[in-house]
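Researcher: I'd like a structural prediction for the single chain below. Treat it as a standalone chain; there are no partners to consider.
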Amino acid sequence: METSPSVDAKGAEQLADADTVHALLSQIESSIRDRHQAHDIVVNRQQIDSIVGFLQRAKPDFRGAVAIAPEGTRVQFSVALPVVFFDGYLNIDSTVLPAERFSLGNVKIGDLRLPGDMAVSLVEWLVNRWTDSDIATQARLQVEQVSMTHEQVAISLQPLDGFLKQLNEVKNGLSVEQDDGLRDLTAYYLRYISWQDIALADTPQPLTDYIRLLMKRVKQRSNSNNAVEHNRAAILALAIFVGHHRVANFVGDVQPNADKALRPASLPTLRGRNDLARHFIISAALKVLSEQGVTLAIGEFKELMDRAMGGSGYSFVDLTADMAGVAFADVGTTPATAVDFQIKLARLHQEGDIMPPIEGIVEGLSKAEFVERFEKVDSEAYLQEVEEIKTRLSAIPLYQTTGL
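Model: Treating it as a single chain, here is the predicted structure.
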């Protein structure tokens, strides 16, 4: 542990080329879809910087920097640790070497130096022991070759089929650690909302109607002692049903039919738009499952990626729905407000009670337009837009306890 960080990188600057990450995601998706074929994953400097920048926006205590060179890619990061009486940082510095396997140069942790092979073996042993498997060994063996230039790193992978199957077995083996009570409640509320007439409507219905119907049931089944748990389950159930069925991957086996996910006949709307309904409820679910900083960073990163050609453009309207979803979940999962949350939402009718007006909020910006107008995500102009969103959210009575 050291008293100062070894990395002084700014996440906002690293995010300048976040739109390039689309290409990387396509490569990863292809390697998983065609899992019986070998694949080369090529990551360029802009993509790496963007991912590191996202991590810094999500976790302010983290700072990272990656420098690519033909002789090796240097990876540095600093993590602030809670230490009494002084600032403490864990500083780690190592280099990924070009080789016919995954290989590290010496790893420096503060003043401690470890041979790279020893560090890899130690992490491998720890992960294998924790998972009671050889999954870390298999992950290392998937890498056939690592090469690099001044601008990119290329990783040659063996077919992923066997590894992904084993990874799924490991995940199932660790499922004893999951919250079974939350899973079972989520499964109940998912089935309940799927049985309502609104789910069969052949025209889009307001998200507020789904919320009102489900929260009436939540209010009936819960009490002041378990209101938070029931609210969490209801938010997750809605996110799975009207947001995206893959949210269930973070909760457990909640679908009645493993081969066919429950979903409404028509997707719901918020402020007349389905994309806002999805942003809102999935962000609420991410808040239940993680932390507020991570949730907002995901929404911001998605918007930065959408500036690419063919994307929908950077949208502060989408970001408004993300922030509203986070505030919604925050009220519902805070013990002091959980019961009142149920009471108010059980008679919810107006969208303005959960989502502020979007008139005048900027959206659809290309990368060039975003840079010209806002430069980066921590500029004064950008922060003014975010502050306007917070002002609109704080005018909603439901959110006035969230400290926006």
